[in-house]
């Protein structure tokens, strides 16, 4: 509701009747009623003091008296009464909306009537009345507060004949005294504009008792009052209170610096009368100013709301919020802080007037500083002067500035911005001076913050809807692309769409294939061709699920990245590939972006899985058809009525020459009359039994075993599948299988005999080696040693040339002894029988031509003699092969003792070989590897050969024991 401007002459009229006449004209014109009467209490009774218009004869004063008594607006027929103070406005034929408008002006009308009544009561009181009258005429009903205060100061100074006067309104009021804001002066230096303090004693006299304070320099120079007025240095001074409706407003000060100046009792009454009249005018002006300010604020908020509602894009909305806030509240700077996903940090999303370094470095914490407290409390937080408010800074940077005294702002307020989804952040306003807003202004900021929150909510909802539409379009397009075509071109287009939807700079779609699960195909957007190592590195990150990637795991040139696996299969446990996107910026992908990436990846995986299933279904169908076409069994399918719809070649070859074309014939009619009931029973069982039906029938001289199964995809019967087998052919096959089984059994028996023979042969060979080794060591070697000693004695007895020949014979005998001993050890090293496997292997390693080493793991123990011998021979043969064929620099024997056996690995770093090369060497007569495998098999173990050209060879065998 917009209030009409209050007529200034209403407060300046000299009498109540003049007031009534002026008010009647104003009300009749404003409301557009047929007639208006103004009633007022005069001489203790209610009477008409002003009227305007027609139809006034309808009123007898009853409704007006009742409205005044009840203190509320009343209507009766064409009459309507609005009470105000000691009077009533009575309308004839008024518009209800107009009556409501005038009801809003009742506080001003009340004050105006009280002023007129007060002036009329004081009229005729000599100098006081004349002075007050002059002030009233001087004010002329003005509602301009500055003008009222200036006129009051001038009138007081001139009326008393003093040189100076000022009027100040209280800006601070408390138990410790009061302080005025700006003062309006007469006769003072122009630079004297305000900041007057009033002590608690003086304030009590002024506002508590309503007294006028008199100061005389000769008397009061040494008092606290004299000390407070020392700067003004008055000879005499009067200080009067300004109050209205029991509320202190300020003070009126008049003084003289002329020596000998005196103040009379009339002067005191005059100042008090002027103060009373000024108080009414000040209160009227203040109320009017408040109403005007409310109207202006409401209009400003309406305009601000319209401006904020003009955009549905969040960035533009935030800029308009800052623009309107700066214009409404006169800020030096403003910023919108946004709450980050961690729920603890606030960063500046948009700002105006703030230094760039401030915007970049400030990261406010929830609960700290003005902004953080506003978000935590979800309420307005103010700092009149941040340097003295001890609220601290919301971030380390602002705390540093405050500690160094370099913080550029003093007045700061924080306003929470909330949406239905939660707190969005805060609007923070900054002033370089102390906070200039009063309580009404702060209330206005809260209303503005509510408007801003609504605008942000609308913008976010709009952008969320747009985002969902874009995401749905992306998902639809990606699904359509890959559903229609899975070529490299379609894959590249899908990568482009996904990258743009994620607001990323680069993107990649990679598909896996084959048994190894490696990347088989990939398509990128804004990416150069990738090396296999880069693709393998990304694929290694897929197992950890959808997530942002650190710079170390992203592709070169990326500041931030994400990866999402494409999972398919029944349980989503098959990795079909991955979706990758990155950006040069360092900010990690948000939860929303990661969620969209998951949706895109799920859509891709769903499409790829469906297409792969369809392709697999087609392959399976072709395979089953191929199996049916190549099967020896007779396969026929029939529809629910029993008509044959398909017959495979085997059925056609066997039956068609005898029965005619099978497709289109009756399945039940193929059997001979004698076996047809059995086929009919099997047909019925196929429809009712889960396992189908079986029967033996005859068809054109062939005896067939048939099995019938119902085909019910989706639970609906589509036909019957019949599989038949020629029993005569089956008997032939059974005879052949029996014959081949007997032959296999004989071969197996022969193989077992050969293995038993080979085992016995190997044992006999080892025994023979042991016997020969002992004979060589115990007999031949001893004979040679004895002969050597005899020749040595003979050499000592001979001299000259004969002794030299004897020494030569001694050298030959020593070499022969060493050769015999070495041969004996190779046949059967005694260390194996005496000390066990490990010392024997150490001796074997020391004798190898290739640099070899022995490594042991597990709990060492003695093995059965036969097993130790087998392990020794296997290692010996393996090292011999290394020396002869591997061309290796080093070799190693690794023995691992286990609870139920032993594992041995012999490895080298030689030239290695392929299976084909090993087979060729075997055909050339090199049977070392075959012998090793056979010896391991005889011992009940397993042999594994791992070799590759250029990478060496490793023989691993495990023996139980």
From TrEMBL:
The keyword GTP-binding does not apply. It is an enzyme of class 2 (transferase). SUPFAM superfamilies: ATPase domain of HSP90 chaperone/DNA topoisomerase II/histidine kinase, GAF domain-like, PYP-like sensor domain (PAS domain). InterPro entries: GAF, GAF-like_dom_sf, HATPase_C_sf, HATPase_dom, His_kinase_dom, PAS, PAS-like_dom_sf, PAS_fold. It catalyses: ATP + protein L-histidine = ADP + protein N-phospho-L-histidine. The keyword Hydrolase does not apply. Residues 873-961 form the Histidine kinase domain. This is histidine kinase. It comes from Deinococcus aetherius.
């Amino acid at each position: 509701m917009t209030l009409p401007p209050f007529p200034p002459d209403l407060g300046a009229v000299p009498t109540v009747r003049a007031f009534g006449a002026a008010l009647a004209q104003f009300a009749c014109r404003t409301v557009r009623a047929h007639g208006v009467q103004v009633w007022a209490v005069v001489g203790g009774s209610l009477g008409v003091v002003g009227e305007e218009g027609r139809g006034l004869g309808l009123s007898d004063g009853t409704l007006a008296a009742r409205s005044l008594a009840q203190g509320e607006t009343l209507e009766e027929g064409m009459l309507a009464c609005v009470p105000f103070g000691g009077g009533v406005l009575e309308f004839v034929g008024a518009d209800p909306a107009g009556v409501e408008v005038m009801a809003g002006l009742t506080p001003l009308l009340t004050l105006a009537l009280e002023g007129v009544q007060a002036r009329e009561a004081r009229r005729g009181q000599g100098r006081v009345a004349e002075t007050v009258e002059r002030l009233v005429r001087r004010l002329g009903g003005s509602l301009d507060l500055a003008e009222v205060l200036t006129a009051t100061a001038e009138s007081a100074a001139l009326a008393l004949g003093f040189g100076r006067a000022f009027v100040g309104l209280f800006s601070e009021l408390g138990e410790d005294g009061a302080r005025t804001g700006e003062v309006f002066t007469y006769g003072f230096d122009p630079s004297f504009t305000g900041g007057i303090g009033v002590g608690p004693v003086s304030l009590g006299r002024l506002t508590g008792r309503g007294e006028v304070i008199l100061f005389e320099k000769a008397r009061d120079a040494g008092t606290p009052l004299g000390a407070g007025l020392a700067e003004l240095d008055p000879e005499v001074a009067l200080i009067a209170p300004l109050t209205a409706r029991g509320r202190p407003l300020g003070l009126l000060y008049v003084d003289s610096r002329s020596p000998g100046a005196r103040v009379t009792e009339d002067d005191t009454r005059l100042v008090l009368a002027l103060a009373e009249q000024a108080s009414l005018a000040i209160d009227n002006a203040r109320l009017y100013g408040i109403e005007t300010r409310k109207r202006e604020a409401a209009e400003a908020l309406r305009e601000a709301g319209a401006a904020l509602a003009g955009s549905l894009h969040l960035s533009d909305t935030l800029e308009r919020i800052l623009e309107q806030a700066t214009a409404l509240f006169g800020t030096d700077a403003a910023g919108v802080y946004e709450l980050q996903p961690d729920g603890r940090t606030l960063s500046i999303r948009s700002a105006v007037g703030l230094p760039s370094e401030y915007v970049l470095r400030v990261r406010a914490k929830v609960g700290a500083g003005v902004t953080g407290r506003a978000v935590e409390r979800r309420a307005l937080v103010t700092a009149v002067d941040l340097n003295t408010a001890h609220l601290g800074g919301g971030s380390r940077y602002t705390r540093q500035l405050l500690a160094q005294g370099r913080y550029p702002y003093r007045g700061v307020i924080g306003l929470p911005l909330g949406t239905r989804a939660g707190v969005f952040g805060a609007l923070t306003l900054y002033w370089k001076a102390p906070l200039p807003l009063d309580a009404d202004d702060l209330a206005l900021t809260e209303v503005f913050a509510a408007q801003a929150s609504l605008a942000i909510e609308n913008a976010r909802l709009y952008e969320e809807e747009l985002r969902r539409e874009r995401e749905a379009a992306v998902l639809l397009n990606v699904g359509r692309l890959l559903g229609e075509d899975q070529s490299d071109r379609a894959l590249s287009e899908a990568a482009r769409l996904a990258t743009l939807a994620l607001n990323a700079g680069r993107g990649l779609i990679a598909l896996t294939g084959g048994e190894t699960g490696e990347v088989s195909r990939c398509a990128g957007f804004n990416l150069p061709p990738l090396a296999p190592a880069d693709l393998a590195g990304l694929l290694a990150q897929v197992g950890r699920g959808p997530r942002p990637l650190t710079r170390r795991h992203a592709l070169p040139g990326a500041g931030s990245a994400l990866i999402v696996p494409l999972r398919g299969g029944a349980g989503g446990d098959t990795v079909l590939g991955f979706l990758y996107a990155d950006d040069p910026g360092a900010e990690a992908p948000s939860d929303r972006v990661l969620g969209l990436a998951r949706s895109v990846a799920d859509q891709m995986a769903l499409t790829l899985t469906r297409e792969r299933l369809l392709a697999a279904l087609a392959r399976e169908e072709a395979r089953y058809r191929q199996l049916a076409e190549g099967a020896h069994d007779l396969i026929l399918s029939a529809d629910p009525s029993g008509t044959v719809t398909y017959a495979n070649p085997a059925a056609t070859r066997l039956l068609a020459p005898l029965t005619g074309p099978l497709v289109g014939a009756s399945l039940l009619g193929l059997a001979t009359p004698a076996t047809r009931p059995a086929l009919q029973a099997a047909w019925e069982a196929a429809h009712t039994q889960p396992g189908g039906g079986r029967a033996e029938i005859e068809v054109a001289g062939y005896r067939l075993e048939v099995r019938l199964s119902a085909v019910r995809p989706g639970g609906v019967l589509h036909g019957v599948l019949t599989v038949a087998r020629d029993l005569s052919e089956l008997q032939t096959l059974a005879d052949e299988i029996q014959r081949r089984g007997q032959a296999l059994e004989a071969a197996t028996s022969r193989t077992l005999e050969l293995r038993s023979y080979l085992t016995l042969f190997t044992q006999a060979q080892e025994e023979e080696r042991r016997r020969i080794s002992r004979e060589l060591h115990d007999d031949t070697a001893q004979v040679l040693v004895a002969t050597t000693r005899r020749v040595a004695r003979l050499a000592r007895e001979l001299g000259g040339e004969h002794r030299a020949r004897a020494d030569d014979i001694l050298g030959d005998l020593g070499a022969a002894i060493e050769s015999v001993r070495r041969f004996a050890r190779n046949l059967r090293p005694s260390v194996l029988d005496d000390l066990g496997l490990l010392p024997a292997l150490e001796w074997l390693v020391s004798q190898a031509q290739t640099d070899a080493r022995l490594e042991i793991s597990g709990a060492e123990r003695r093995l059965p003699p036969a097993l130790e011998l087998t392990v020794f021979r296997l290692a010996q043969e393996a090292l011999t092969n290394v020396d002869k064929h591997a061309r290796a620099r080093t070799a190693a024997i690794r023995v691992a003792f286990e609870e139920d056996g032993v594992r041995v690995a012999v490895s080298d770093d030689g030239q290695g070989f392929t299976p084909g090369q090993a087979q060729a060497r075997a055909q050339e007569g090199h049977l070392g590897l075959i012998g090793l495998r056979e010896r391991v098999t005889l011992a009940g173990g397993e042999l594994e050969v791992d070799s590759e050209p250029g990478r060496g060879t490793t023989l691993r065998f495990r023996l139980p024991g």
